[in-house]
Amino acid sequence: MNFSPEQFYAFLGALMFAGFVGITLVGALIATSSLRLIRSVSGLALCFVGLAGLYYYLNSPFLALMQILIYVGAVCVTIMFAMMLAELDETPLPWRRSLMVAGGSFLVAAVFAIPLILLVRKSAWMPPPLVRENAGTIQDLGRELLTRYGFAFELISIVLLMAILGALVVARTGRETPS
Amino acid sequence: MNFMNWSSNLNVYLVIGALLFAIGIFGFLKHRTLVGMLISGELILAGASLNFMAFGHFRAADPVTGQAFTLFIIGIAAAEAAIVLSIMIAVYRNYRSIQMRDLKELEG
After folding, report:
1. Which of B31, B36, B53 sits opposite A60 (nearest CB)?
2. What pTM, to 2 d.p., does this model score?
3. Which of A141, A146, B47, B83 is most exposed, with minimal Cβ within 10 Å?
């Protein structure tokens, strides 16, 4: 086994990519198949870390950072907070019934997954168009967000504001009803 | 398909996206609590945004398009998570449970 440094770096990169793919899929499986919700949330965080790695390989480090910052740092932590407030957990079903539910869900998921994967394998995509050198940097993204996607950007901020207000209102009015 | 150039192959990303989508649907049907369904919904969105990123990087004239779309998906998902969690807290306060089967009645 004799590697030149270039080959070694390429091999290392491929190995890390395979690791990220594995983390993503294993995290998603943990998130869906676990009965304890705390494990589900941890699996979701793991899956999003792997996904951030994949985004990095797609030449978008900004999106990778945002993925970790928003999903792992905010969404997962918020779900954990809500779980701690409400002590949520699934009560286990009798095992025959839970096996039936899991099998049925697996069948439906397979009905969605297998045609999609076959489609991906069979289809011949258009050849890539000519892309300017070094396109898609953070500078480009920022410029496009405030020019071409400016309207959508403003709409998203209004949606987020409304979501925060709505969340506060919904969570507050519940407090006043006697339980 | 060689292991060494997986990371520059569009189909690898598309298959991962399809698998994430399918795992999300699996979890959406299997979980019986609101939080579990929320988590599975996030997985479905993640699969969709991975597809956008892959096509934007490999097949779009302007790679920024896919990234901008994924940013918007992240924003919408954050808003969705906030709303669902507050609804969940309110439901838990009224019913002392978030099992879907217990939420049978709807009162004004």
Report:
1. B53
2. 0.88
3. A146
Judge whether A177 lies within some domain.
yes
Q: Select from B64, B91, B98 the residue whose CB has the most chain A CBs within 10 Å, as the one to mutate to test that interface.
A: B64
Assign residue A51 the CATH number of its domain.
1.20.120.1200
What does the pLDDT look like over B82-103, one tens digit per residue?
998 888 888 887 777 667 666 6
Which chain B residue shows the shortest CA-CA distance from A93? B32
Phi-psi region of B96 (alpha: psi -120 to 50; beta: other; left: phi over 0): left
Considering only CA atoms, which of A40, A23, A22 is closest in space to residue A31? A40
CATH topology of domain B10-102: Helix Hairpins (1.10.287)
Which tens digits make up the pLDDT trace of A10-52?
888 889 999 999 999 999 999 998 888 889 999 999 999 999 9
Q: Which of B50, B62, B80 sits opposite A54 (nearest CB)?
A: B50
